[in-house]
Amino acid sequence: MNAGPQSIVSLLTSANQRMVIPVYQRAYSWDEEQCRQLWDDIVAVGRRSSGTHFTGSVVMVLGGEFSAAGVNKILVIDGQQRITTLSLLIVAIAEFAREHPDKLTHVSYEEIVDSGYLILKYKKGEDHYRLTLSEGDERTLRSVLDHLENQDIEAVGESHRIVDNLALFRTWLNNIEDPNVVWDGIQRLEIVAITLAQGQDNPQLIFESMNSTGKDLSTADLVRNFVLMGLPMDEQEDLYANYWRKIEETLGADSYDEVFDEFLRNWLTVIYAPTSINMRDVYRLFKRHVSDNGYDKSGQMAVLLKEIRRYAGCYAQITMGAANDKDLRMRLARIKALDVTVVNPLLMSFLDDYDEGSFSRDDLLEMLDVTESYLLRRSVCDIATNSLNKFFSSVVARLNAAQEEGRNYLEAYEAILLGEAGTARRMPTDADFERALRTRDCYAFRRGFFLLSALENSYHPKDPRDFAGGTYTIEHIMPRNALAREDWRKMLGPECERVHDELVNALGNLTLTAYNSELSDASFAQKKARTVGGYDKELLVISKSLQDTDVWNEKTIRARTDALAKRALEIWRMPHLDHSVIDSYRPAKKAASSAMRKITFRMICASGHLKAGDTLVSFEDGCEVTAKITEDYAIRLSNGEEVDSPSRAAIRVKELETGKHYAVNGWQYWRVGVDGPYLAELKTAYLSEAERADELDAASLRAAFWDGFFDCCSEREDFVRVYGDQSERWDNRGWSVSFGLGIHGASVLAYYSRRGWVAASIWMSDLALYDSLLARRSEVDEVLSSLGGKIAWNEGNEKSRELLVRLDTDVTPEHWDELYAWLVDGLLKIRTVARLLEAE
């Protein structure tokens, strides 16, 4: 590696050298903010009489690759955004110089073109262009340069950022008093040019540690570079064109930014369920996924990209309405309208498992209906969503386990939801849902429009109305300003103030209309009789009942509320299963180790327990059934089909044999060879090795303990009412955690010590609070004694005091569930004690 200062002009005008942005680099992504910063820097240095301006580093890989015309191709792996933006500015300057030679006197159009800033004038083909961008931007940049040389050639606008930023520079040049300072400033820009030797230096390590100016690298940038950078150039271009570019196209034109990053997080949430993935961990976990599954071995990266592309298709169906199946598309659109994005990993898992044949289309549609019902019921009942992120990830893991055990997918999903009764993740009952619909303010409800439009479309299942265009709004049948009109006061009766206050925003008083401003505060009779938009001519089914009454008062509003609530119960149904079935799907106690990770077939192959060419054997009605492990660690059935999991392979074998779909535990179905071990035995052996390899250090063990504890807290409604939902807390590595009391000078602590104890305490920096509790010691001790721990009144130091109850016990992971329950109870008892302070 060589590094040294250099003017950026010398880089742009080097003879017989062209710069190429590798396919693994992100597309051009600078916008006005970054362009303005570069412009301001250039203008500032251009106005000075001397000096230079450092504008970061440019990292290049010298591969020694020359074209037939003798032009050296250099790969730019850091600095491409600045080089591209500067090239656009120089294009704008060249155009300005041609059109206004009297204003721009320090350079001419001919000098820019002839000196090679943008093109190598006498070279042909690719060698003609100084800079080659990645696919998606390249056609636009070349057309801009062709138009610069020949104005009869039209520039294409496929890359909107190139077009928009070029337009910005044209505008700024036209508005600056002296455009010469811009050209002078460019001449004084300096960089540190870092050149790497192909095959000697590691560009990936350097790339991960650098992003000197401009936009921060997105997670997608890091992942794409990790996937492609270390491969030979021809393999990079093949994987990019055939896989990565198609993934980008599936996710949308700007997917290399927020959309792609969010997709990767959701995909890894599915892969690593039940772990909830934070965005900052995506890149690290992606690299781990590659290593664990052997994708870093020769020829395996294409297999990974196929997997990512498959999930990208699922994500596009969820977020972009890309499903071809009309019924599926409508259901996903309704779920998207509820705007609970934490459900997306679960939906991705549904769609991928459906594509793999794990269940029928009818089951998929039913699961989406149940999901919509679950989300809407919780929303109507005002149950917070902040516990759902981890919950949906756990659902993915539990459904994976149910599949591996050969159980019914739909039944498992419904049982998991119903099994959360009494927790913060519960599905509201029919009684809860109906009560909320009858009593809540549905106008201020964020999903009120969704509720009314979905109620209407329930009467048009084959041809739903499109309410998304903004034409329809929510209409108050009894106006919000009704009490200002005598006719409305008379209709509402002697208790009109109470009726209006209680029912103006009730479900029964709301409908949808395209004529809200016209109806406004009119009387009920006027609203009915209006020629355009009147209720008597309304086509919406949910407003039909208004045509059959001439009175709109408490009785009719409540009657319509009841009718709409009953309709809602029919649309958003509650699943029903026997308690014995629900209980059979309840999870075993959690283990706080890597055993919770999903063990894939690929992991076992990559670990060496299985190898390509091994034969898997089972017996169907006495007949031997075989399959082969491929080089890509897939399972090839006798008919040539390839699947990626033992259970899916077993399910497909049964389907080919019987024509019916059966749930099968593939790990118990297949063995290696006729007399070899079952796959389940190899899975157990792999897990044992992983456990030994993943032995946790003290900080990681504490983090695992608290992560499980926060989950436990969120399952206890009594705890949530007192301390709030803790489900979003994570990665605490200390030996204690704190909880707010709302009392100045006091807080609550929970302790976990590997030396063999846990504790709950109230810590006080206000010594008067401690003295107050001490004066009531017998009362406090009585409250805490039921916990069975040791009560300690610690005077600590001059500035603080602590009241602590401590349990000496076995704190190894197999006992954590019991410790969680004790700590929750302890913290609730501590809160009871704290109320004594509030009473003072």
Care to describe what's here?
- There is one protein chain.
- The protein folds into six domains: 2-214, no CATH class; 218-322, no CATH class; 324-429 and 575-588, no CATH class; 435-571, no CATH class; 599-693, no CATH class; 698-838, Yope Regulator, Chain: A, CATH 3.30.1460.
- A hairpin with a 6-residue loop joins strand 14 and strand 15 (746-753).
- The chain is of the alpha+beta class and 840 residues long.
- It has 35 helices and 18 strands.
- The N and C termini lie far apart (71 Å).
- Helix content is 48%, strand content 13%.
- Helix 16 (361-380) runs parallel beside helix 18 (409-418).
- A six-stranded mixed beta sheet has the order 1-6-3-4-2-5.
Question: What does this entry show, briefly?
Answer:
This protein is α+β, with helices and mostly antiparallel strands and 840 residues long.
